[in-house]
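Technical annex, item 7. During the second reporting period the consortium partners agreed on a shared format for inverse folding records so that results from different sites could be compared directly. Each record opens with the tokenized structure and is followed by the designed sequence. A conforming record, contributed by the partner at site C, is shown below for reference.
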């Protein structure tokens, strides 16, 4: 559950951003190795496809995101 006392991961950022933007999330495999078998795979693939800069360096989607990334 999200809350101000809890860090959010790169995978969670992708999901929140894309759902807030009402984007169609289709299947497919991301290039990011940490996302390939992760629940966020489709979200990360779309972020890569859209060339969102935070995902260009393939951050580990399970790690807490930096404030700059959020």
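Designed sequence (site C submission):
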């Amino acid at each position: 559950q999200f809350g101000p006392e809890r860090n959010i991961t790169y995978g969670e950022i992708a999901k929140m951003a894309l759902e807030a933007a009402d984007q169609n999330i289709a299947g497919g495999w991301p290039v990011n190795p940490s996302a390939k078998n992760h629940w966020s795979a489709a979200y990360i693939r779309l972020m890569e496809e859209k060339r969102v800069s935070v995902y260009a360096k393939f951050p580990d989607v399970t790690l807490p995101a930096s404030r700059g990334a959020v």
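The radius of gyration is 11 Å. The helical segments are 10-20, 41-49. All partners now use this format for quarterly exchanges.
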